[in-house]
Amino acid sequence: MDPSASVSSLPLRVLFVNRMACLERGGGETFDLEISRHLALRGVEVAFLSGAPQFRRAPMPLDRARVLHTPWLRWFPWDKVKGGWRVRQAEFAWFQWRAARWIARHAADFDLIQVCELPDLVYGLKKRGVKTPVVMRLTAPNYYDPRGGVSLADALIASGTSIEQLKIRGHGAVQDIPNAVDSELFRPCSSEARAAYGAGTDEFVVLYVARFQAFKNHAMLLDAFARFLKVRPDARLWLAGSGPLRQEMARRAEQLGIAERVRFLGEVPYARLPSVYAAADINVISSDYESFCFAAVEGMSMALPTLTTACGWVPRLVADGAGVVVPVGDAGAFAAELVRLAADPEARRRLGRRGRELVLERHTWTVSADKLLRLYQAVCFRCSAEVPGRTLSG
To answer: What is the pTM of this model?
Structure first.
């Protein structure tokens, strides 16, 4: 019997657990919000459990989201301070403890729980005897899992370089659910962003959409941009995002004497991102490592040329003529390619057209949502067979 066929006519009720979804947006949050939206279009009933600051409202509220208030040291540079990761783990541990208690009381309301990382939450749910199956998504292979929660999940999903790394670590059953982009939202369009952010129509705008964390290497990008300005003094650098290193990067721009040419856009609402991309001349990624990179496929979908470091998965995304790759951490090479591409508008158009073509061929949410829904159905069928008397939707 085909397990997916046996449950396909039944509505699924799925709880997405993502601590950061109501706090700030990164790759894991983009995946959960977009894949859940496309699952809802297929009849899946979706709810969210997320985090909020201890004594404040969630800065990015979601419809149908329950939030748990726990400590959130937003501007603590945990990835720059020795032992800082312990502070971040303590924050997540508090949320996972509260989330496990809440889910244990409400598990019967859902047919399946999807968890973004949070191995201790999976462990806590299984320890409490929660029977609702858990699908766990890992955004990167360097997760912290002291209690072995990853191995307790009923299914494990990932994408990009995380797939091969997880298999090396013994998780051979991990399922590849590719990251994607909303190609209808992120498409070439007109934009008022230049006027809004004070850029002239003839100025060359360089855009980087990324959290201000160490591995994103904004410092190298600022160094490269300072060199680029010596050739193109009319250029501007837009940095979209938030994070603990934002103020440090602002100080670095001041020290380099380029502050007036650098604009910190802050956390741009998702619906406004296409307008920001549309106003730029080139999309750049200066990271030291990326397991995937939503900023790359978003820019490609907007038909923007991509200049990236050789950081993990991104060179594979822009292969086949959609971008230019330089060595990680090489500000000189990065600046040289900025100079070359700025002087060659036809090359930029060619790279941008190819990027849009590749997105439409390989990176749409429709394909990923269909694949994930089939996995949900198979997991629910298997788990209902293992638990006598348990049926979907009650």
So the answer is: 0.81
